[in-house]
Specification:
Number of helices: 4
Order of helices and strands: HEEHHH
Strand content: 15-25%
Structural class: alpha+beta
Largest sheet: 2 strands, antiparallel
Strand order of the largest sheet: 1-2
Radius of gyration: 15 Å
Length: 74
């Protein structure tokens, strides 16, 4: 998977992906999510569409990090 993504993300030093793994019934379960951007476009916009939720924290720690109360209500 690493080599495949590296071939298709030529502008990156290493392929961008999120990996979630866990063990269930003595077997490893691994989910790989290729990414196109460091953060979603909604993070950088400065209009009402701005939505500050860090998807990385959800992927890695299983929790939402929402810095603004307005985004929690959305």
């Amino acid at each position: 998977m690493f080599d495949y993504l590296k071939k298709h993300q030529l502008d990156q030093v290493e392929p961008m992906m999120n990996i979630i793994s866990f063990m269930e019934n003595k077997k490893f379960i691994i989910h790989i999510f290729p990414r196109k951007a460091y953060r979603p476009w909604l993070y950088a916009t400065e209009s009402e569409t701005q939505f500050l939720v860090n998807p990385e924290a959800l992927a890695v720690a299983g929790m939402f990090v929402i810095p603004l109360k307005e985004n929690l209500i959305k």
